[in-house]
Design goal:
mainly beta; Ribosomal Protein L9, domain 1; 3-stranded antiparallel sheet; two-stranded antiparallel ribbon; 5 strands; 25% strand; globular; binds FE2/S2 (inorganic) cluster; FeS-contain_CDGSH-typ; iron; metal-binding
Length: 68
Amino acid sequence: MSGHDDHPDVILCAGGPMLLRGDHVIEDADGTQHRTVRPISAVCRCGKSASQPWCDGTHKLIPKQRRP
Ligand code: FES
């Protein structure tokens, strides 16, 4: 294995969400499980999304130095 993959399954966006490629199950802090339903799903890392555990773009309203 070369150590590089043109299509990684997990991508951390600077200051934004974690992108997941393919089928996954996300468990939130309450223990509720959420299955991905899209080819690529954006998981909130800033904690401010109104549609947890998914990113709704709210991270863009947070000052850059306080983003994940
Ligand atoms: S990372 Fe986008 S709303 Fe939290």
